[in-house]
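Extended Data, panel c. Modelled sequence:
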Amino acid sequence: MSDSVNERPRTLALRARAARLPRWWALPACAVLGAVAGAGYGVLQTPQYTATSYVVAVPQEKADPATALGFAQAYGRVATQLAVLGDAQVAAGMSPTELQEKVQVATSPDAPMIAVSATTDKPSSAAITANAVARSLATSANHAKDSTRIKLLPFSRALPPNAPASLSTGVTTLVGGCAGGLLGGLALLVRPRARTEAVAGASVPGPASALVRSAP
């Protein structure tokens, strides 16, 4: 019994302190928590590096340049297929499934160019992987160059990047702080609305007072 009696004043004191806090306390608190979480993510994440290799589609004799652009778009769509990546797995040191996760391919609507990008946790590995996939794509496409009259040639080899492509700790801290501040602002918007609805829901028994006045 004595423990429960002693705990009651403490609980009341904590409630009194919470009631004295300003209404906007959630905004800086959430911003600080978000910044701490963002900083932790930035420190613990593994840096990722991206390298890009370029391949160009060149029209052969009696071939329309517009045809080269169309074939570049088509080859870009099949660049990450297992049939193409199978020749690159030895040079890259990855399985075709891993290459599909690490490699991204982009094409241009104005130029017959194919960009092969690889993202790994090491700069040298990213460059080797991008070059291996670009070379495998060119080899696979050139098997049909006699019928398509389009030949894929290497345009620019990938080099090991100097800086990681992943977000730095400063950026993740800033993003986390902004996200936390946004949540704190939403909390401030919700609290007054909840109190207003609670007050509006309470009703005063007006007819009862009228009956009291009419009683003899």
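The two ends are 51 Å apart (CA to CA). This feature is highlighted in the accompanying rendering.
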